[in-house]
Design goal:
There is one protein chain. It is built from 25 helices and 16 strands. By secondary structure, the protein is of the alpha+beta class. The strands form six sheets. It has a four-stranded antiparallel beta sheet. Strands 8-13-10-11 form a four-stranded antiparallel beta sheet, with no helix packed on it. Strands 1-2 form a two-stranded antiparallel sheet.
């Protein structure tokens, strides 16, 4: 079967044809004469094309068919996650243009390239927020290096233009899938407010330099660079960069504090520039409140001017005060507005930083609360000092080793797939030590990894004692354990990190001579971290993986045989019983299926008969409501009817008009076979008799129709 990939057709079944081609090329190579340069060049060219085509085919086929799985544990152990490699390799490709978009520009906002681009755009936005406002009021700053300012300004404009193109082709999710149609992406962008803001921030307001003044020289405030104020409307892109950084960083609280400080510095900078501009409007040095540019007959430097205004703005916005008091109405109004804004800003900053610091210490506070509760309980129950010290030391060990975090509560927010992958990465080295779990099904391994529980034992604690029923297996992550005698004085062996014990006892293998009980005492030498897997969790996971259950039981039997702890006769008998029980269960299941089929058939027949009976009843009800003109004629024409009571005379039931009316006769010549028919007196035809005859007539008609 041939597999077709873009630009190349690869036939896995054509291995013989490829070998023949290689043999033919090898023969051609041997037949070439050294002096035949033309043939040698042709052969080299063909060989190069063949090698290039083979490498390209192999690379593309590896993308289509990654090949057989080398094992679940081995893939994670070597870190060869092909999917992640492909994602990292095409990070900039997906950002620039060529992944899933047929060579057109489609930006994947989840790639690192997009995040880096947002960082570049944020630098340009921050430059405009700081220097455009500063150069508008500080003419010395504008005149310091005008050519450099122009280069930086138009470099930022060029970044804005590129960012507009990137923004117009950013993919978005629709029904869970990323849209990669460039026309649809552009249509979505132009219909949003972002396109209008981007266009407004790129309007060529620099043409106003012709009216306002030269861009390289400032002779009055505000300077000509004020025409570029529309560049400040790209704030949303910098906010998007901050959001991505906060989501990706491992120190979100520290970044939040840094972000608040950046906002505060920009606000203080703007406020200082406004103070300098008002001082310019009132007049520098006209009173004690405004900025002074001359001191002792010498002009103050740009550095002193900016630092003084920044200092005044900081004192005002933080409501510290200690600034020169205002003297005229404009100054009073400005200071009042400054204090009002400063109170709002100060309260916001203090609240945000306070909550951030609280969140940073939330884990320590929660841990300390739990420890205080345990201390109070021990005091209330009058626990001995020795035991109390052991408990406090256990808490100290948990906090010093960063094990106070409740992993279960933290991981509950993630889906099972991601929880399994994280658990595999965290517990991989530990799982590789368990022989019975090697080469298990990936699904079963993921189930077991999620059920591992970390337990910490203090020095001298017994993990298990001899004779206890084995309900858990343990994997040593950190620390040392000693296998000791019953009195605890003799140490037979010491277990270190990676050791496993108790794995056979949780498999419930029939014929185990120990009877699923512990055969030794295991005690913790120091503080030990152990992963625990309970028997119930293991068998709950094995219910969905019958093949994995067979594999684990077989490996457990092999371990018992190796140690001489398996009674083969009992194990064989148990297997036969299980097989016979399984056969009986299969037969019962087949019988149950047959009964269900028969019951379904009977139920269908019963339903059909019910429908037929309902139809007949409906038909009877309809016919019982039809009028009978014969009965009306009988009632009108006869007031009394004489009916013979002799059993030899039969009355026709099909029609009452056919009933013979016997008249009294004195002659005996009409008798049949000499039988004398006695005279029957006439019976009066009453209303009850009419109703009885009508009912009989209806029933006879219905029976005849049903018979037909």
């Amino acid at each position: 079967m041939s597999v077709t990939v873009p630009l190349v057709t690869f036939d896995p079944s054509g291995e013989k044809q490829g070998s023949k081609t290689r043999m033919k090329m090898a023969n051609e190579k041997t037949n070439f004469h050294e002096s035949d340069a033309v043939h040698l060049a042709s052969f080299t060219q063909r060989m190069g094309r063949w090698i290039h085509r083979f490498r390209r085919t192999r690379q593309m086929m590896s993308d289509v068919h990654p090949g057989p799985d080398a094992g679940f544990l081995e893939r994670f152990a070597s870190g060869e996650d092909h999917h992640s490699e492909r994602q990292s390799d095409v990070g900039w490709k997906a950002f620039l243009c060529r992944q899933h978009c047929r060579g057109q520009l489609v930006v994947d906002t989840t790639q690192k390239g997009h995040y880096k681009w947002l960082g570049i755009v944020s630098i340009a936005i921050m430059y405009n927020y700081i220097f455009i406002v500063g150069r508008t009021v500080f003419w010395d700053m504008q005149n310091l290096c005008p050519i450099v300012w122009l280069v930086l300004d138009y470099t930022c404009d060029l970044i804005y233009v590129f960012d507009m193109a990137v923004h117009a082709h950013e993919g978005y999710l629709e029904q869970g899938l990323m849209v990669t149609d460039p026309d649809k992406l552009r249509r979505h962008y132009w219909q949003s407010w972002d396109s209008k803001i981007d266009i407004f921030s790129l309007l060529p307001t620099d043409l106003l330099y012709l009216v306002w003044g030269s861009p390289t020289e400032c002779i009055h405030v505000p300077c000509g660079v004020v025409v570029r104020m529309n560049r400040l409307f790209r704030l949303s892109r910098m906010m998007a960069f901050f959001d991505k950084t906060e989501n990706q960083t491992n120190f979100p609280n520290a970044f939040r504090i840094t972000k608040v400080m950046i906002y505060l510095l920009v606000i203080i900078h703007w406020n200082g520039c406004i103070y300098f501009a008002i001082s310019n409007a009132i007049g520098f040095g006209s009173d004690g409140w405004v900025v002074t540019l001359v001191e002792n007959g010498a002009n103050l430097s740009l550095t002193y001017q900016y630092i003084f205004t920044f200092y005044w703005s900081t004192l005002t916005l933080t409501t510290i005060g200690e600034t020169p008091p205002p003297e005229i109405e404009v100054e009073f109004v400005f200071v009042i507005v400054e204090y009002m804004i400063g109170i709002l800003i100060f309260a916001t900053i203090v609240g945000n930083i306070g909550s951030m610091i609280t969140n940073m210490n939330a884990s320590r506070t929660e841990f300390q609360t739990r420890m205080d509760a345990v201390k109070q309980y021990m005091v209330f129950r009058k626990v001995s000092k020795e035991l109390e010290e052991r408990v406090i030391q256990w808490f100290d060990y948990m906090w010093s080793n960063k094990q106070s975090l409740d992993e279960g509560r933290v991981m509950d927010t993630l889906p099972d797939k991601l929880k399994a992958e994280i658990a595999i990465h965290v517990h991989l080295d530990t799982l590789k030590q368990v022989k019975i779990f090697q080469d298990c099904e990936p699904g079963l391994l993921a189930e077991l990894v999620l059920k591992l529980q970390l337990q910490v034992f203090s020095p001298g604690d017994y993990i298990c004692r001899k004779g206890d029923v084995g309900k858990e297996m343990y994997i040593v992550k950190r620390g040392k354990l000693s296998v000791c005698s019953d009195d605890g004085k003799t140490v037979f062996v010491t277990l270190g990190a990676g050791s496993v014990f108790g794995e056979v006892s949780i498999l419930n293998i029939a014929g185990n001579k120990t009877g699923n009980r512990r055969t030794a005492n295991v005690r913790s030498v120091g503080y030990s971290d152990l992963f625990c897997l309970s028997k119930s969790d293991l068998w709950n996971a094995l219910q969905e993986y019958p093949e994995g259950r067979k594999t684990l039981l077989e490996r457990g039997r092999q371990l018992l045989l190796k140690d001489g702890l398996l009674d083969e006769e009992v194990n064989r008998r148990h297997q036969d019983e299980c097989d016979s029980a399984k056969d009986r269960i299969d037969k019962l299941e087949m019988a149950l299926d047959t009964l269900q089929t028969r019951f379904a058939r009977l139920l269908a027949e019963y339903t059909s008969s019910q429908q037929t009976i309902k139809q007949r009843i409906s038909k009877v009800e309809q016919q019982s409501q039809q009028p009978f003109p014969e009965i009306d004629a009988i009632v009108e024409n006869n007031s009394a009817v004489t009916i013979p009571s002799s059993p030899n005379l039969k009355r026709k039931s099909s029609n009452l008009l056919d009933v013979p009316v016997r008249k009294p006769s004195t002659s005996r010549s009409d008798d049949v076979a000499g039988d004398e028919v006695p005279h029957v007196p006439p019976v009066p035809f009453t209303e009850n008799k009419i109703n009885a005859d009508v009912s009989t007539l209806n029933l006879n008609r219905i029976e005849s129709e049903n018979h037909q």
